[in-house]
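Hey, resending since the last one bounced:
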Amino acid sequence: MSYVTAEQRVQNDYLSALQAGNFTPPSFPLSSLNIILLIGWLMVCQSVSESSFQRGRWIVFIAIAFSSIWNLLFVRAPGVTGSIGTGLNSVLCTVMAVNFLLLHDPRSFKRLILRPQQRMNSTNGQINQKQLADGNEAKEHIRSKQAGKRYHNMQNRPGLEWEPMPRETLRRLAWVFDLITCFRGVHWSWKSPPPSSHPLLLSNVSLGQTTTLFRNLSRFLIGYIVLDAVKSLMIADLYFTHYPIRTPPPHIARYIASPLGLYTYRMLLATLGGYSAIDLEYSTTVLLQVNILGPNILGLNASPATFPPIWGSPHAILRKGLRGFWGDTWHQMLRMHFVSIGDAIAQGLLRNVHVNSNSRQDKVKETDRHNQSSAEAAIRVVVVFLLSGVLHACGSYTLLGSSRPSVSFLFFALQPFGMAIQSTCSYLFCSSQLFFSLGRYQLHVRQISNFFFTILWLWAFAGLFADDLTSGGMWMFEPVPVSFFRGLGFSEDRRFWCW
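The structure tokens again:
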């Protein structure tokens, strides 16, 4: 079956399911009711009384959860992006509702914005009392007086300040939109209250569009080409076109004959496809906000400082093994939301333990505090991976193919178990006589062990996740609008325009 035929079959299956009444297509505003309710509550929560706030947040949360479950069960969108987006949106809206309605008070949130430009008196070099309150401005003023210099303006030295929830409707809408779209929360404070001032001066904000253009553009182009090449290779393999078969495609049959070799090839290609797709999405966002729209339109959201690297160092795998891969090397796009819920659950589960120890009037020893901290960390890790499993399982559930969401959930649910196995083995090995006999090679042996355990663990269980995505038709997703590899004849699907 050709790739075009596989695409047409997916579309026909969707139309047949619609005609049979198995689900309904998305419609506005019903299918977007969960996000509308979330935005609406964040817009009005500052204006209601405290009693209305406490009662209303539970009502709104229940409505958001009901809307999300409805979309998950009965709404399907055409195409891979729309179908998987239905499941992901349902979970993400519910997770944000838990954080912004139940666990935290959004009225206390503040975000960093560019401070309004400040000018200095050009006649006597004096600064007013408001400027003197800023320690950084005062220090610069003193240094300039000592050097015999005069400050004529400070327009090129933008600083930062905390912005609470605005009272003006349009500014509050922009504030709320930034809150729900900034998953990493780089410039947000969920603490109450945050510092009254921020000493950092982002002198590179005004230079961000020019100094980062080549870097961001080159990263975008490289990611685009890599993803286009990966997609072209996937088209040549029926495994990635909705058919999880176990025979190798013709173009690699002479090189890879063993089942393990074929499995490894497909897992590497699937991993590279997922990695390059996420990286291209991120680099596109950075290029658009920083280098195209710029700080004059987006303010601090166009600063390179608000876009830290999405990927961590691979050296974390050598230091921490599987825990380092998931905690540092892999992307952390939703970590803040998941960790917030994990911390709340850990504190709730361990609160009774703490109360019972007080009732016995036992002295809390340092080891007890350490054990409780370790227990909180373990619970947090388990909750984070369970939430991640639910997120990916719901995305799998709303795919148009015959997916198995429980398999995707199992892949993520097994990761804390793998971390526990590795930690136990590492502890036993480091306590053995063999480890002490290694002498100066101890560190190298530990790093090599961490690396191979991580690779083997991920290799062994990655097939669960990849096979489920294949059954659901995830790899039919068209990531790039224009394909150079396909258009130039390097694939059986010879289309330049793919959307």
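The chain has four domains: 3-112+168-199, 118-154, 209-310, 324-476.

Sorry for the duplicate.
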